[in-house]
Design brief:
The protein is mainly α and about 270 residues long. It has a single domain (about 1-270), classed as Farnesyl Diphosphate Synthase. Helices cover about 80% and strands about 0% of the residues. It is built from 13 helices and no strands. Helix 3 packs parallel to helix 6 and helix 12 (about 220-245) runs antiparallel to helix 13 (about 250-270). The radius of gyration is 18 Å and the shape is globular. The protein starts with a helix and ends with a helix.
Length: about 270
């Protein structure tokens, strides 16, 4: 049973969210990030809650697209999952209420954004993709506010937004079969898979451009430039090429897993910036 709850929160996604805050705080070199563990807790709980709520609303879709999820297998009831998500959101907000006002506001805003996404926006074209990508970008701004360096966190936040936007569209292409059965109006369903591929490609090129321009505009180190080129940008180009060659659900699932590694590579690049 405990393992089912563990799978429900998607620990890898939660870890990446926490590492994002850790790396940005580290990169800004203003404080010792280890002393700010308490301030990072709302990120962990909001991310976990959002993942649980996503599974709660997506049970029917997951029966087709992700049949091994805990709610589909009835390891946990939907009602229990909903209570679990509410509890996680509550803990996040409770902890954030003890922090500086700006961090509390971002926690509330991101919580509202995620709830709207899981409840309504997920099945819409672009609005849902924009909402979840914005929530991901807010993690970078949250980290910046911890060290009062919002300006320095803006470019990483833009990178995070673009990266997740491309990945969200890619996931929509992967989930077309299940989403269509539930009458979802995601971008590839409404505008076609080819246009979705074009959107992913355009977003990836914009992201690569931002990663390169950051070397000049933000004064990032040569180590950052080399790391981001060889561990992030080349991988993104590979994903785009593979997407155009084969958009089967199996290949797209593999590409989405590959992009999770890309997230970690991006954090590595920022850590040496």
């Amino acid at each position: 049973m405990i393992n089912s709850y563990f799978k429900l929160i998607r620990p890898l996604n939660v870890t990446i969210a926490w590492l994002t805050v850790f790396v940005i705080v580290w990169a800004l070199k203003k404080i010792n990030p280890f002393s700010f563990l308490f301030e990072t807790l709302p990120v962990i709980f909001v991310c976990a809650a959002g993942n649980v709520l996503n599974d709660f609303f997506d049970v029917e879709i997951d029966k087709i697209n992700k049949p091994n999820r805990p709610l589909v297998l009835k390891e946990i009831s939907q009602k229990t999952a909903l209570y679990f998500a509410v509890l996680l959101f509550f803990v996040a907000i409770l902890i954030a209420s003890r922090l500086k006002t700006e961090l509390f506001v971002i926690t509330i805003f991101t919580t509202a954004l995620i709830v709207c996404y899981d409840w309504k926006l997920k099945k819409t074209a672009l609005f849902g993709n924009f909402a979840v990508s914005l929530a991901s970008g807010m993690v970078f701004l949250y980290a910046g506010l911890i060290v009062l360096s919002l300006r320095e966190a803006f470019v990483p936040a833009l990178m995070g937004f673009l990266f997740h936007f491309a990945r969200e569209i890619l996931k929509d292409v992967e989930d077309v079969k299940g989403d269509r059965k539930e009458n979802a109006q995601t971008f590839p369903i409404k505008f076609g898979v080819k246009n979705a591929k074009i959107l992913v490609t355009t977003t990836v090129f914009a992201l690569v451009l931002v990663t390169l321009l950051a070397y000049k505009t933000e004064g990032y180190s040569l180590a950052y430039l080399l790391t981001v080129i060889f561990t992030v940008d080349l991988q993104l180009f590979f994903v785009v090429i593979s997407l155009w060659k084969n958009h089967s659900p199996q290949n797209l699932n593999w590409l989405n897993k590959l992009l999770k590694i890309g997230m970690l590579s991006g954090l590595l690049a920022l850590s040496v910036s």
